[in-house]
């Protein structure tokens, strides 16, 4: 089950069913199933507090993913996304139309076991994001 909610902002994800179907297809292609995943869209301030409290990072970020999986084949977790940050990053990068989906699939890929700290890991993560974004936008 995939849930979408918001904290401290007025945001409702458009095309919820399309997003759910796409995220489930990503999981399937990664040889995983979806357990319980919550996407929580929030403000920069809200996510900064989570970053400081749980990760000891005093920096703004676009996403924080908490993996709650107990089974390596089942994706479960909470994915916090700063809507402020993705809007700003989208404008900066010229990706306003896809930044939300990029960050959403980024969180799902973290739950699937992908990392992004090392250069080669980040390159693989970005390639996966690009691949799955192309699938999402191909259907429009």
UniProtKB/TrEMBL annotation:
Binding sites annotated in the UniProt record for Zn(2+):
106, 110, 116
List the EC numbers from the record: 3.1.-.-
Q: What does this protein do?
A: Single strand-specific metallo-endoribonuclease involved in late-stage 70S ribosome quality control and in maturation of the 3' terminus of the 16S rRNA.
**What does the record's cofactor remark say about binding?**
Binds 1 zinc ion.
Required cofactor(s): Zn(2+)
Give the first-level EC class, as a single word. hydrolase
Keyword Glycosyltransferase assigned to the entry: answer is no
Tell where it localizes. Answer: Cytoplasm
Q: What is this protein called?
A: Endoribonuclease YbeY
Read off the Pfam families from this record: YbeY
UniProt superkingdom: Bacteria
* Alphabetically ordered keywords of this record: Cytoplasm, Endonuclease, Hydrolase, Metal-binding, Nuclease, Ribosome biogenesis, rRNA processing, Zinc
What family does this chain come from, according to its entry? Answer: Belongs to the endoribonuclease YbeY family.
The answer to whether UniProt assigns keyword Flavoprotein to this entry is no
Q: Which residues form the signal peptide?
A: none
């Amino acid at each position: 089950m995939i849930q979408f909610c918001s904290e401290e902002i007025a945001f409702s994800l458009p095309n919820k069913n399309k997003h759910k179907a796409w995220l489930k297809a990503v999981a399937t292609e990664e040889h995983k199933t979806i357990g319980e995943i919550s996407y929580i869209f929030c403000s920069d301030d809200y996510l900064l507090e989570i970053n400081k409290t749980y990760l000891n990072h005093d920096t703004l970020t676009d996403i924080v993913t908490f993996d709650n999986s107990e089974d390596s084949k089942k994706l479960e977790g909470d994915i916090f996304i700063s809507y402020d940050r993705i809007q700003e990053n989208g404008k900066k990068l010229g990706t306003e139309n896809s930044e939300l989906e990029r960050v959403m699939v980024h969180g799902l890929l973290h739950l699937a076991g992908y990392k992004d700290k090392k250069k080669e890991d980040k390159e693989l993560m970005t390639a996966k994001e690009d691949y799955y974004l192309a699938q999402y936008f191909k259907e429009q």
